[in-house]
Amino acid sequence: MVFDAPPATASHSWMPSSPCGSRCIEPIDEVGTARVLARLAGVIGLVLTFPVLTAATPKSRRENLQRRYARAALGCLGMRLRIVDNRAAGQGASNAGFADPGTAVMVVTGHIGWADVVSLAAVQPVSFVARADMVDWPVLGKLAQLTRVIPIERARLRELPGVVGQVAQRLAEGNRIAVFPEGTTWCGRAYGSMRPAMFQAAIDTTTPVQPVRLRYLDRHGVPCTVPGFVGEDTFADSAKRVLRSKGMVAEIVLEPLEYPGLDRRDLARRCEIAVRGTDRSRHGVLDTEWIESGNTRVQDPSVDQQVPESVSATAW
């Protein structure tokens, strides 16, 4: 079991990377040590009982069980869940989930940290495309296995077509799959562009895409960066920060479905507009402008690294 697995670092020039780091994390109100220990005990209890109850529950009722566990996990982390459904009548699931059982959908959202997995599962259980070492993590590792995570080694581009193929197969079978097209984590106030590669699976299977606007808010309703898993963070660092937080809300906004069309770049752009709206990528109170460099927004000035469109679009 790897408890201090750090975020993946860039091993080639077109691998998605984020300039976010410790300077992005702004403190919010915290609870006392006793409350932190109680939350940790609750999380451990959920981890220990989840596999047993899942095995003992009929398949027809497991989805509801998994959603309840994810919501309980958010509660143990000190977060409340808020779901806002902006979809037109007839889109998505009748209970404000992503889709009705047996209906395929690709869920796309920005990536802030490991808490994103729990927050999305609290809306409705989905399978994820996630970093390969997640299965070795405490807490999330077991969840990753039970939700049939599709592992991806971002440093190995040759494996990417195979991962896209797995996503397409799952979608063709009527499953819900969540992907993070930015390819890495950002702090929640700055963000990267959505890479087009994963969208090919939706196009190949004519599967609708569900854009999700995911934010973490403090007790005053202001976006916060505490759940960010960035820079030199380890899982332990991030988990301690979240467990100590007070009054956080995980806000999930379900935007209208995007239909795949024939061009993955166009689909990626449409989904990015749906997820980001008019928001500008910047770091909190810092008056920093963010510009396009290849397919990733980076701080100006920064390393002058242009990625050829033919390479980056194919890879990501």
UniProtKB/TrEMBL annotation:
Domain Phospholipid/glycerol acyltransferase residues, every copy: 105-217
Entry keywords, A to Z: Acyltransferase, Lipid biosynthesis, Lipid metabolism, Transferase
Pfam families xref list: Acyltransferase
InterPro entries hit by this protein: Plipid/glycerol_acylTrfase
GO MF annotation terms: acyltransferase activity
Pathway membership: Lipid metabolism
Protein name: 1-acyl-sn-glycerol-3-phosphate acyltransferase
Originating species: Nocardia rhizosphaerihabitans
